[in-house]
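ok, trying the design again with the full structure, not the truncated one.
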């Protein structure tokens, strides 16, 4: 008699060093059910780390190492931002705090649109970048990058996503990222690309 045995796979726990709930949600959807994602939202007791690096890589490494030193389990961090060509790559690594100490996504967008007021459509090209630094349980590090090209429109559209999504247009569809559903954004975004590369490493390391 042949017997079929149900194989139960236990999700692998992995930490992401962020308190940004939107990032956590996007990353959890991309990693899928095989992973149990924990984040700094589960650890309000831990202090915020200062992002003192001068690149996405350095800031991702600072965030990942700080959490790894506490949990000593597999961790990663995402550092990301928007580079606008007409602004010589700003806001870049300062994307989150672009509008100052009291920053909000809305204030960041308003500042960006004011700075680009006199810039014509053909010069409003931009890209999102994401760098992930992953550290395994033994402390060995790897990094992954993702880039998402588009341009900045002149007024916000859409309600999905977060950050600069309402003013970042995907050239192929003419839609802002805030007009895309989550699965479509994740299939083309900077974060989607970097997390898929990380996922590949984790699955091959099983
Ligand atoms: P953590 O440092 O806790 O991860 P954070 O929001 O401060 O959260 P970053 O320092 O990496 O993260 O800054 C990323 C900023 O870049 C984010 O706050 C947005 O303003 C912008 N950004 C990054 N990815 C984005 C995306 O997918 N859509 C829209 N804006 C994005």
């Amino acid at each position: 008699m042949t017997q079929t045995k149900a194989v139960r796979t236990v999700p692998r726990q992995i930490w992401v060093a962020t308190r940004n709930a939107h990032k956590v949600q996007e990353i959890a959807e991309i990693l899928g059910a095989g992973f149990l994602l924990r984040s700094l939202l589960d650890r309000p007791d831990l202090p915020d780390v200062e992002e003192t690096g001068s690149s996405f890589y350095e800031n991702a490494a600072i965030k990942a190492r700080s959490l790894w030193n506490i949990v000593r389990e597999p961790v990663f961090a995402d550092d990301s931002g928007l580079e606008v060509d007409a602004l010589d790559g700003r806001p870049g690594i300062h994307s989150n705090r672009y509008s100052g100490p009291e920053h909000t996504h809305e204030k960041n967008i308003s500042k960006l649109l004011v700075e680009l007021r006199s810039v014509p459509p053909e010069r409003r090209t931009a890209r999102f970048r994401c760098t992930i630094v992953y550290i395994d349980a033994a402390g060995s590090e790897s990094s992954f990058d993702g880039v998402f090209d588009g341009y900045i429109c002149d007024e916000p559209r859409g309600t999905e996503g977060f950050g600069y999504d309402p003013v970042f247009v995907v050239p192929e569809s003419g839609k802002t990222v805030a007009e895309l559903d989550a699965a479509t954004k994740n299939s083309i975004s900077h974060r989607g690309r970097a997390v898929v590369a990380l996922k590949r490493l984790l699955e091959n390391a099983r």
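Keeping the full-length input from now on. The longest strand covers residues 141-152.
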